[in-house]
Design a protein that fits this description.
The chain has helices at residues 9-30, 38-53, 60-72, 76-91, 98-108, 110-120, 125-145, 147-152, 160-166, 170-174, 180-200, 202-206, 209-232, 245-258, 265-274. With 277 residues, the chain is mainly alpha-helical. The protein has one domain: Farnesyl Diphosphate Synthase (Orthogonal Bundle).
């Protein structure tokens, strides 16, 4: 992820190792190239994880991850929990309530937040609770953003209870319907996700500068996605909201201003190139 480019250099490769592991596993669960062998690929990925923890890593992702896991004493259970979340995507296509969806993000998203804190040297349970809220908030924002594309994969992450309450049906998603009911649903989903971001906000205030920009970018990036979702409103099923260059520049500026952080000149130059400025 682009945000990891702004973590302090001594942590950067370890954050990339974490996200590389998760990215490949996510591809196994989602990408068309793995259709028909998704479960088998995830099983093999977990086998290689265990081998890496035994000191026998061969795949480049696991060579890097083994170094990171050893350096920061990362619990293997965080990675196996994450893989369980990806397996859930193979087995479950609908969620009755938000509580059920949160159970899914506890596996598919929250381990990443805790692992990031482990890499930063933070093991206090109260900080992990903030990271869990932030991880779920980001995941929920992306799930709202991706309703039409997830429908194409046969998945509906919007809780069935919410659809029913606002009079929205899966047929509305399929037909890309634009309606006031969809707009009301979108406002409700955005408000709940924003509340999760607000609950996680103290995390950025207490971590050291090693992770502050990384986490502030995550927080502001997620909140900006919610702004874009809200602006699309009733057209969400017909138009996927995205962050443009101006949005990304705004997110970076807000992240740096949060605690008055500054980036090294080389990293700032990279940021400007990534943002097309």
């Amino acid at each position: 992820p682009v945000g990891s480019m702004f973590a302090r250099s001594h942590l950067r490769k370890h954050i990339f190792a974490l996200f590389a592991f998760a990215r490949v596993a996510d591809d196994f669960a989602d990408e068309p190239a793995y259709e028909g062998r998704r479960s088998r690929e995830l099983d093999r990925w977990e086998e290689q994880l265990h081998e890496a923890y035994r000191g026998h890593a061969e795949h480049p992702v696991f060579v890097a991850l083994a170094d990171t896991a050893d350096k920061f004493a990362l619990p293997i259970t965080e990675f196996t929990e994450l893989l369980s979340g990806f397996r859930t995507d193979l087995e479950r296509r609908r969620y009755a309530t938000f509580d059920e969806l949160r159970s899914y993000t506890r596996q598919s998203a929250e381990p990443v937040g805790r692992l990031l804190l482990y890499i930063g040297g933070y093991r206090a349970p109260e900080l992990h609770a903030y990271a869990e809220d932030l991880s779920t908030a980001v995941a929920v924002a992306r799930l709202i953003q991706d309703v039409p594309s997830d429908w194409e994969r046969g998945r509906v992450y919007l809780p069935a209870a919410d659809l029913r309450h606002f009079g929205v049906t899966e047929a509305d998603i399929s037909s890309r319907r634009v309606s006031a009911a969809v707009g009301n649903l979108v406002r409700y989903e955005v408000a709940r996700a924003r509340a999760l971001f607000q609950r996680a906000r103290p995390l950025v205030d207490v971590v050291g500068s090693d992770l502050a920009v990384e986490l502030a970018l995550t927080w502001h990036g997620g909140m900006r996605i919610l702004d874009k979702i809200e602006s699309v409103g009733k057209r969400l099923f017909a138009h996927r909201p995205t962050l443009n260059t101006a949005d990304k520049a705004l997110v970076l500026g807000r992240a740096l201003a949060w605690r008055g952080e500054t980036l090294p000149p080389r990293t700032m130059h990279l940021a400007q190139r990534l943002l097309g400025r």
